[in-house]
Amino acid sequence: MINLYNLLNIYKELSIDIINAINNEDVDLLDELLDKRQLIINEIENIEDKSQIKNIISELNILKIDEKINNAIIELKQKIKENIKKVKEQRSVNNRYKINEPIDSVYVHIKY
């Protein structure tokens, strides 16, 4: 059985890999890493002696890494929202031109 320190160290490494996957926008890898990290969390929950967990988390700077993950996710969400907004604006512009196009062609035919 793996001890608590080793599990938290694995958790830390997975968290760093998650940050890299978010920064590279590698969604498939991100999904896989999140699944692996959840398995580690489940193993940590099953350990009976958790008396040293706060000390180990502090020693490994896990809270800072989790904060970096949170910030990276927020930044990615902002990028996605901006992209969605641009796509909506582009669609709106395209739809306006499509609506005007048939009307313009009718006027062209009437003139001849």
Characterization of this structure:
It comes from Thermobrachium celere DSM 8682. Helix 1 packs antiparallel against helix 2 (27-46) and helix 1 packs parallel to helix 4. The protein has helices at residues 4-23, 27-46, 53-59, 62-111. The model has no long low-confidence stretch (mean pLDDT 86). The radius of gyration is 25 Å and the shape is elongated. Helix content is 87%, strand content 0%. It has one domain (4-111). It is mostly helical.
Key terms for this structure?
mainly alpha; bacterial flagellum biogenesis; FliT; Flagellar protein FliT; cytoplasm
Briefly characterize the structure.
The protein has helices spanning 4-23, 27-46, 53-59, 62-111.
Count every beta strand, where a strand is a DSSP E run of 2 or more residues.
0
Strand content: under 5%
Outline: elongated
How many strands, what sense, and barrel or not for the largest sheet? Answer: none
- Secondary structure class reads mainly alpha
Q: Number of DSSP helices? A: 4
Please report the distance between the alpha carbons of the first and last residues. 87 Å
Q: How many domains make up the 3D coordinates?
A: 1
C-alpha-based Rg, rounded: 25 Å
Determine the fraction of residues in helical runs and give it as a percent range.
over 70%
Q: Tell me, rounded to a whole number, the average pLDDT.
A: 86
Summarize the helix and strand pattern as letters.
Answer: HHHH
Name the poorly predicted regions. none
Organism: Thermobrachium celere DSM 8682
Function: May act as an export chaperone for the filament capping protein FliD.
Subcellular location: Cytoplasm, Cytosol
Family: Belongs to the bacillales FliT family.
